[in-house]
Amino acid sequence: MPTNFAIRIKQALADPELRANFRGAMDFLRNKRQVAFSNEDEWQALKKQGAAIRQDAIQRLPELLTQLEHQCLNNGIQVHWAQDDQEANTIILEIAQQHQAKLVIKGKSMATEEIELNNFLDKHNIECIESDMGEYIVQLDNEKPSHIIMPAIHKNTPQIADLFERKLGISTPKGDVDALIGVGRTILRKKFEQADIGISGVNFAIADTGTLCLVENEGNGRLSTTAPPVHIALMGIEKVIPNIKALPTLQKLLTRSATGQHITSYLNLISSPRKSDELDGPKEVHLVLLDNGRAKISQDQQLQSTLSCIRCGACMNHCPVYTRIGGHAYGSTYPGPIGQILTPQLKGIEQEGELLDACSLNGACGEACPVEIDLPELIRTLRHRRQAASQKQWSLEKMVWFIWLQIHQYPRLYRLTTKLAALFRTLKLNKPANWTKTRTTPKPAKLSLHQQMKIRSKIRDENENE
Amino acid sequence: MSDTMNKKQVYLFGTCLIDMFYPQAGLDAVALLELSGYEVIYPQAQTCCGQPPYNSGFKPPAVTIAKQTIQLFSAKDIPLIVPSASCAGMIKHHYPTLFDSETLETKQAEQLAHRTFELIDFIADKLPYNQQPLRPPTKVTLHESCSALREMNVAKTWRHVLNKLDNVEVTYPENKQECCGFGGTFSVKSDAISAVMTQDKCHNLLKAKGNKILSGDSGCLMNIGEHLKFEGKKDPCLHLASFLVDHFGLSHAH
Predict the structure, then answer these.
(1) I need a surface site. Which of A246, A286, B113, B114 has the fewest CB within 10 A?
(2) Residues forming a β-bridge with B86
(3) CA distance A179 to chain B (A)
C-alpha cells in the first residue's frame, strides 16, 4: 500500500503547474546565489569561517545559552525555556493572556511553524496574522509554507491573484505583482496598528550582548517587533552565536545563499525593550528558547552538525528531488535535505524515517551548504540508524541484502552468479517493476569481465611460455 | 623473458556493474592503462565495493564486503584504478570511515584510499596526446556524474582530457550539474521521482546533440541508455574509456 508520502509525491509530480513553479523558482534562486558567490576563493574562505563559528557554538551550547539568558535579562528581555512545542505554545499563550491579547501579528518564523503556534492560539481565540507576504498568502489559502525562505514559492502570480479575489474579494490587473503586494500591504498596515502582540523568530542570538538578530526584506519583521506593545521572539536553541564579530560572516553566507543578496533590506538587532527615554518600541520583550529535541542532537557526535544550519534554504534550492516535488510533499515543517535530516531527529526516526529515501545522494545540497553541513553523509548515517532501530525481524529489503551479501562475500559464488546471469541473459524474467516503468532491463553481457580477463591472462601465460 | 617485469603495476577494480553488463568498458580501461605503461592486475576474487547496501541503509553487509575488498587489494602496495567515480568514491572516501578509528582496519582502509584513483583522472596526464590518429570530426555530449563532479572532483579532468582530443567537439546538457536520477537503489525505491529526473536528464542530453553520450560512470549510462531504449530511441551511451580507446585507435584488449 502506498504511504502518505508516496501519495503526496505522486500528486506533486502529476501537477505540471506546480512543477513549473518550482523549477523556475529554483533555477532563479540557484543562479542568483551563484553570481553572489562568483569568487570561488572568497566562497571557500567564508564558508570555512561560517562552519567553524557554527560548530563552536553547537559544542558550547549550554555555556552560550546561559550567557545569552544572563545578558538578555540584564537588558530587560524576559527569557523563557521551553522543552517542547507544548511548553513553548503555553508560554506564549500565557504572555498573550496576561495582556488580554486578541490579535497577534507575526514576522516570518519557521520555529513558530514547528510548534504550530497559529493553530494553538486560534483555539484560544487569539487571531494570528502572518505579515511576511509569502506567509500571508499561504495563510490565506490555509496552507503551510512550501519553502523555508519563500513560503509561497509553489504559487505563481495568476494563482495568487485568483486567491486574493476569492478570499479578499479584491481583483488586481492581470500579472501586476506590485498591485498584489499593494493589497497585502494595505491590509497588513491596519493589523500592525491594531496588534496587541508581535511575534517573530530569531536568525541569530548574540550571547555576549544579549542581542536578537532578525534578517528580512519586507520591513514586516521590524514592524512586528516594534509597533505592538509586546514582542515575543521564539528561537530554536541552536541559533545562538558567541559574539557580534561572528555576525557579518554568517549574515553574508545567509543572504547570499538564500536569495543571492549581499545584504537584505532590513537587518534588525534587538537588544532591549523600550527604554524610559525612548518614544517607541515594545514595552516588553520576551525570548522563548525552544529545545524540542535539539539538545539531544547536540550531544550526538555523528549528527550534531545538523544544528549548524542557518536556514538559508540553499540545500532545497539545489536538490533535484525538492525541485521536482516541492515542499508540501514532504509533509514536514522543514522540507528538502535539511528537513530530511532534521525531521526524523526531531520527531522520531520510526515515524519520519521514510523521508530519508527521497534522496539520490547526488551531493548537490552538501556542496551548496554555506556552513559545510555534510547533508548526504547525514542522510546516509540516518538511513543506517533507521535500519539499526528497525523492529522488523524480516523485510523484503532485508532479505535482498542478506542474499546480496551471500553472493558477494564468496567470490566463487559471485562468479557463478554472473555466469548464470549471462547464460540466461535472453530470458525475460519477472522484471523489477519500478525500474521498468520507464526503462528497459539491462542485459548481462555474454562473457563477464572476470571471464574475459581470465581468458586474457591464460593467453598471455601461454605466449610467455612459448 | 617478458617485458612485464619492468612495468609499473596497477590493480583494476572492474566494478560489479561493468563486470556483468559492460565488460567492454573494463577491457578498454585495461587497454588505456597498458597504453599508459602499466601492467594491469585484475584479481578474480573481486566482487562489489559494497556501496549499494551502504547507501541503502544496510551498513553491516557493506562492512563485510569492504573488509574483503581491502584485504584483496592490500597484497601489493600499488595504485587501485576504478573505472567509475561512484565506486572509487566508496573506496576512497567511505571505507576509512567504516571501522573504529585507530584500528588496523582503518589504517589499511586509509592506505588503500590513498592509492585509489578514478580511471580517467589517473591516466589523464599519461595519454599520448601528440600521437593522435587522424579522426573525422565528431561531437560528443559529456554527462558529468554526481560522483565525478562532487565526491571525487574529477569531472574537470574528464573535460580536460576531452578538450585535448583533436577533432572532438564536446557539448554539455542544460542543468549539467543535476543528477540523472539513478542513485542506485533510489531508482527503485523512489521510482516516481527518479523517473522524472531521468526523463529531464535524457531530454537535456539529447538537446545537446552529441553523436555519443559519454560518462565515466556506468550506473548513469545504464540509467540513461535504458530509458532512451524504453522510449524507442537508440542508446548513444559510451563509457569514456571506450571512447578514448576508439579515439587513440587501440585494438580492443581481447
Answers:
(1) B114
(2) none
(3) 34
pTM of the model as a whole: 0.95
d(CA B137, nearest CA chain A) in Å: 30
> Does A360 contact B61 at a Cβ distance shorter than 8 Å?
no
Q: What is the largest CA-CA distance in chain A?
A: 104
Could you read off the pLDDT tens digit of each residue along chain B, which spans 254 residues? 444 456 799 999 999 999 999 999 999 999 999 999 999 999 999 999 999 999 999 999 999 999 999 999 999 999 999 999 999 999 999 999 999 989 999 999 999 999 999 999 999 999 999 999 999 999 999 999 999 999 999 999 999 999 999 999 999 999 999 999 999 999 999 999 999 999 999 999 999 999 999 999 999 999 999 999 999 999 999 999 999 999 999 865 44
Which residue of B2, B21, B48 is in closest CB contact with A442? B21
Distance of CA A165 to the CA centre of its chain: 31
Which runs of E-coded beta strand occur in A68-132? 77-82, 103-106, 127-130
Test B56 with A445 for CB contact under 8 angstroms: no
Domains of chain B: 3-122 (3.40.50), 131-247 (3.40.50.11810)
Contact criterion met (CB below 8 Å) for A248 and A48: no
User: What ipTM, to 2 d.p.?
Assistant: 0.95
Domains along the sequence of chain A with CATH: 59-296 (3.40.50.10420), 411-465 (no CATH)
Whether residue B58 and residue A387 make contact (CB cut-off 8 A), yes or no, is yes
Q: Are the beta carbons of B14 and A360 separated by less than 8 Å?
A: no
